[in-house]
Amino acid sequence: MSKMKASTALVNVLKNWDIDHVYGIPGDSIDTVVDALRKEQDTIKFIHVRHEEVATLAASSYTKLTGKIGVALAIGGPGAIHMLNGMYDAKMDNVPMLVLAGQVPTSVANTKYFQEVDLPTLFTDVAVFNKQIEDAETLPDIVDVAIRTAYEKKGVAVLTIPNDILLTEINHTVAAKQEVFQQVKPEISTESIAQAAELIKSAKNPVILAGVGTKHAKEALVQFSEHTKTPVIISLPAKGIMPDDHPNFLGNLGKIGTKPAYEAMQDADLLLMIGNDYPYTDYLPQESVKSIQIDIDPAKIGHRFPATVGIVGDAKEALTALIEATDYIATRAFLEASQENMANWWKWLREDEAKTTTPIAPEAVMAQVQKIADKDTIFSIDVGTSTVWSTRYLHLGHHNDFLISAWLGTMGCALPGAIAAKQAFPDRQVIAITGDGGFSMVMQDFVTAVGYKMPMIVIVLNNKELSFIKYEQQSAGELNYAIDLPDINYAQFAESCGGLGFRVETFDELESAFKAARNASLPVIIDIAVDSNAAPLPGKIVMDEALGYTKFEIRSITEDHRFSKMPPLKTIIRRFF
Ligand SMILES: Cc1ncc(C[n+]2csc(CCOP(=O)(O)OP(=O)(O)O)c2C)c(N)n1
Ligand SMILES: [Mg+2]
Fold it and tell me: 482-507, pLDDT tens digit by residue?
């Protein structure tokens, strides 16, 4: 056993877990950790971001992509507070994360010292493991337990570390390298498979709703769907799990879902919920409809929808077992009807993509994205209308990845996600798609991408407003208020950061900007003046929304004394009936 500084021992534990990079910002109370990382910079890269929120959002995205734990650090007080948003993103999307936060020295603890914030209390709700270190000797063991717990509970482990503790010399033996944490999968009961197979055999209109829990079971999902001729619908973050161009695919469900998905759910006589915890139960069938739910977590079975048969276990194993337990079905009228419906839907979308107008239609932008995208592009998507356009118009296959802040739904996630994607897969093309509001929350970190030589394409759909909220206000029958954003030239900003920038104001400039961006070896921003009247209408407009729009129109005339620009009537009619 040799003597070493506690901070060195901490870094050794990180190395043992194969952690090869950390996002963060240095400063007083965390400087000792940063110094220990400096000495190990050949093994652990320190990615110095410009805002701690970006550090945790990037760490969360890295884990969503790779399954490996993401790590972020910051000083105590303000730095720790800035990290909260990305920590919640990890918590809500169930991904492991390790956060190291500095703290004032123990000699002044609890004296209302400069930057002293009660961090364990602050992190109570967000963390699955949340300890303030009190003794240098136990620090390495606690770091190890923190990482194990984050993997085990798929959540955030936080260590708050007073700076003086890190300077203490401790006795420490460098532990043997850890294998990456393997979770034991529950054994699937043969009885549940047999019961599920019976339900599948007697169903006429079965429909699958697949979520991110199916990510590792993509091929099995396709095989099962083809074997039983069952249409597949996904939850939004599961985009890419079923190839968009697969004939059995009906898109995603909900407000920004497709009309065929909505209608198939209405007509279903058997719902197969696979690896999801879909919250918008209004979009699910009537509760009397039979259902099979597959989930590794028994607590999820029947949580949102009564499960006639629950299969606790791994989605891939369950789907493989179900293929074996059921007969091949050659044709199914319900699937064919859904496919016809879907053909219509694609026809409408292709009409949208073909728009050549100025101001530019966001749908036309998506068509350009598709043209320059590689087969294995990683898409990192923000929250706003960019979510709708990307989800609806991008055609993803099994080699793509689609990053999003699914359950927290935080604006500003696209750029940190793109940084993490480039860190995880430097050779793959990375495209971030974001609104001007979302991008301007984190734009300072474009310079991080430039500094670390992370070529990426950031598409800013610049409509000079919080468009998603504009339509939210309208569909709720409220008047529009506080949604305008000043016009920023994001292309000039890109250049001032040392990247490349293209400002696209007319449709004619669109294609050449995308071609140039595709060939660039620097991070690029394509700042596109998109039509602010492009309405991200729901795939299926439900009665409440239709009434909300009508109320908004009446209030615009009577209270604001003006006619507002409504979404095109043709689209409203198509989506309503
Ligand atoms: C951090 C955060 N603040 C507020 C919101 C609520 N919100 C959702 S979408 C949106 C508007 C997004 O605007 P922008 O990025 O410009 O995209 P647009 O809808 O205009 O395309 C807002 C304010 C949020 N999801 N996250
Ligand atoms: Mg906007």
Answer: 999 999 999 999 999 999 999 999 99
What is d(CA 461, CA 365) in angstroms, rounded to the nearest whole number?
Answer: 9
Same domain, 412 and 306: no
**CA–CA–CA angle 471, 476, 480 (5° rounding):** 50
pLDDT tens digits, one per residue of 62-95 = 999 999 999 999 999 999 999 999 999 999 999 9
Q: Which atom of ligand 1 is nearest to the CA of 383?
A: 9
- In this structure, are 264 and 373 located in the same domain? no
Final residue of a structural domain among 306, 340, 374: 340
Do 326 and 234 share a structural domain? yes
Could you tell me the distance, in angstroms and rounded to a whole number, from the CA of residue 135 to the centre of ligand 1? 43
The answer to whether the beta carbons of residues 218 and 280 sit under 8 Å apart is: no
Ligand 2: centre distance to CA 461 (Å): 7
Ligand number nearest CA of 386 is 1
Label each residue of 348-361 as H, E or C: HHHHHHCCCCCCEC
At 263, list the tokens: 């209608």
pTM of the model: 0.94
State the DSSP H helix or E strand holding residue 198, giving kind and residue range, or none if neither. Answer: helix 190-202
Token duo for residue 21:
């990079």
Q: Is residue 214 part of a domain?
A: yes
CB within 8 A of 339, min separation 6: which ones?
Answer: 231, 247, 248
322 and 359 within one domain: no
Whether residue 183 is contained in a domain is answered as no
Q: Give the residues surrounding ligand 1 with Cβ less than 6 Å away.
A: 382-386, 409-411, 435-438, 461, 463, 465-469
Q: Is 354 exposed, middle or buried (0-12, 13-18, 19+ CB in 10 A)?
A: exposed
